[in-house]
Amino acid sequence: MAKKAVTVDNVSILFNLNKEKVDNIKEYFIKLVTRKLHYNEFWALTDISFEIEEGERLGILGFNGAGKSTMLKVIAGVLKPTKGSVKVNGVIAPLLELGAGFDMNYTGAENIYLYGATMGYSRKYIQERYDEIVEFSELGEFIDVPVKNYSSGMRARLGFAIATAVEPEVLILDEVLSVGDAKFRIKSENKIKSMFDKGVTVLFVSHNTAQVRRLCTKAILLDHGKIIANGDVNEVCDIYDERVKSKQ
Amino acid sequence: MNRLKGYFKNFWKYRFLLQEIVRKNVKLQYRNSVLGIFWTFLQPLLTSIVLALVFGGIFGQRSADVGCYMVYLLCGRLLYEFFTQSTKRAMRSIRLSASVIKKVYVPKYIYPLSNVLANFVTFAMSLLVLVVMVIYFKCFTDEVIIINGYALLAIVPIIILLVLSLGAGMILATLNVFFKDIEYIYEVFCMLLFYLTPIFYHPAQLGTHKLVSMGLMANPLYSIVEMFRDCVLFGRMWNWNHFIYASGFALVTLVIGFIFFQKKQDKFILHI
Asked: Domains in chain A, please, with CATH?
């Protein structure tokens, strides 16, 4: 039996959100004294369990607000589940909103090391991959220019190049396959496909079932924080397409 | 025990991130300024000169309490500046790194820690000004500066100050996630601290109003600054009461800061 790459065990998330945002002391105390500190409790995820084996590619489908992004945040370790647990074997590389870890005043070259360190890699490890990253990002001499002067496409390209160069074991793709111009899009899709061949485990969030069918082997369908379908990619995509049709 | 081991293992894994952020903060501090790194030396020097011009006439009279007034000022100002700058930056660190914290898992204490350490690096460099000043006044004037083996002990108050700054920085960073007002309140607090720390005066020069002396005694910066001056200006052993109070205060602050931060850090993401 193949090793488990990601194990999600009975995960529930309770959001405890204030109705109004209270972020200063005056409001907090006034509301505390007048007993107006209301909380809106709701379960963003309830009893989610699934497993992904190494090398499997899981598509996560669902309408807006179904809990897809919350799910990814839990797996990435950013959000701690209220109940249950998540276990990830190996290095996880989130490709959500590329370039979030950049410092705008730093040059591209300096940001490569910073971004690498944010993902837990040493300077030496990044140094070995530096040329590959610069070449893939197609930034050329702009690599020594502060990132604040980059276009959004340049930023995304650099982020993509770093995140894929470090050869993570688990890759989280959140609608990022639409990065840059058409030429770079093809290049990045090829890069991701070559990572598939090396046996990377993938979590892919999308509304586009055609893309999910093409890229994934398995899928789950989320609705209001619950899994309503889990299994082969084509079966789950069929259910999702049905639902889309019936809503129209 | 196992949990503690887990902490260290995690910290070891992210030591590169700590290095990178410290490097970044030091590098970016003076980028795009013409004089660059020289501001590390110029800034404390110039502000001390201003203080000497303003207060020199009143508090700068020659006495055994003050010794060389310029060096006396510089000691106090350097330590005070390190404490306030590092805690202010640590306070903002979590909010400023929101975009990363929301996307990638990183141990969050890395941010206040690296900001305090980055400030410590610039502080250590600025000590060079102090060295130059001490040499200048010792060689070219007849000001009273006693330099001997005790100068090496100056590292002790500096370490106490580092621990205190880290603890205070973690408390402030946590509070700042939930209440943005802290930034403004702390600004005022720092001003109060400036006057409650004997930077440009000696406590003996003040009228001994009970409230004033109590305020001074309660201020751990007072003890730390006094210890530091004993080492580098007066060439004598510090008062051990200062040592016990300052190191105790710093350790308690660090423990409280660490526990408070750990308890609240899972909620950060919902507020930033």
From this structure: 4-90+205-247 (3.40.50.300)
